[in-house]
Amino acid sequence: MYLQQLSVINFKNYDEAELVFSEGVNAFTGNNGAGKTNLLDAIHYLSLCKSYFNPIDSQQIKQGAEFFIVTGMFSKNNQPEAVACSVKRNQKKQFKRNKKDYQRLADHIGFLPLVMISPYDISIITEGSEERRKFIDNVISQTDNHYLDELITYNKILNNRNALLKQIADTGKFDPGLLEIVDEQLCTSGNRIFERRRNFMDGFVEIFNRHYDFISDNAERVELVYESQLLTSSFEQLLQNSFSRDKALERTTAGVHKDDLQFNIHGMPMKKFGSQGQQKSFLIALKLAQYTFLYQQKGFKPLLLLDDIFDKLDDNRVTKLMQMVSNNDFGQVFITDTGVERVEQVFNKIGVAVKLFKVKGGAIDA
Ligand SMILES: Nc1ncnc2c1ncn2[C@@H]1O[C@H](COP(=O)(O)OP(=O)(O)OP(=O)(O)O)[C@@H](O)[C@H]1O
Description:
Keywords: ATP-binding, Cytoplasm, DNA damage, DNA repair, DNA replication, DNA-binding, Nucleotide-binding, SOS response
Number of strands: 15
Bound molecules: adenosine-5'-triphosphate
Oligomer: single chain
Domain RecF/RecN/SMC N-terminal: 2-353
GO cellular component, one term: cytoplasm
Organism: Mucilaginibacter oryzae
Protein name: DNA replication and repair protein RecF
CATH architecture of the largest domain: 3-Layer(aba) Sandwich
């Protein structure tokens, strides 16, 4: 699967642009603020129906304009697939495949799988556990629509339980029968999510280790560990044990909504003990493992978007990484960098052809 052609109208800092891509490596180069990342984001729209960076669609409309349109012509299983996303101010987003409107955007997720690696991903390491849960959930959701539905169900039940705890605190009245029903629902849904995450992580950790060792040339020992309270106790038991605390705090303190991922380097937390380059390498290995997982599940190669990829990495890691993403295990790749010479140099060194797009103030010079 690959993107043959992209066109944007009134998208961020672009009036109009049309680009024809290579099936291999494509690079957007230009100064800061030129519009390189905006092109990656346009591609992200076509795959995941939304921006990677900003959840508010109307903010992607070019300042002063009334709408934006992003269109892509893909080739999938040698069939053309035309995808178009348009957003008008104060109107519902429209998303079409081969001129037909989607009723549910969720039905498009996973059809054109994509992995983005961006400097903003550092929040997966530095921020709270929610970011890491979001990462696992995004990866699984692109291969399993039911999983997304299960998450929605779980969160609804969780909200119900929290409302009930609040009601108990407010009124002092407690209906054990009602709580029992809600607990049972929460356990059923939570157990499904836990099993799915655990199964996923079993295979994922091995892929991650392989990628990290390759990029770093085995320079350091890192660890990725799935943490869940359900690994050591049943959900039912957890709810029983935490009931007094839940009542006092008026919210549910145990469950899969507390799951986390532990990132270590030489046995210490990556967040505190990893250098910037090591943290970036860790994130890249994590995202490339996502890529490999998607590829295995889908049976065809997703798109790979690498934003500002060379920053903070030493020359060895840059070479290793570019070698890796231009080999047969990867398909179409898009990268951004400020220096055209650097891109040319890196790809000359490994003998891989790259199609260059020079970006300047929202215009392209191919
Ligand atoms: N809705 C919008 N309307 C007009 N311009 C916008 C809009 N949203 C973003 N921009 C502009 O897009 C530019 C940023 O583009 P982008 O993030 O693609 O830059 P970049 O080339 O990747 O830069 P860097 O090298 O700094 O990462 C900024 O100048 C910003 O003001």
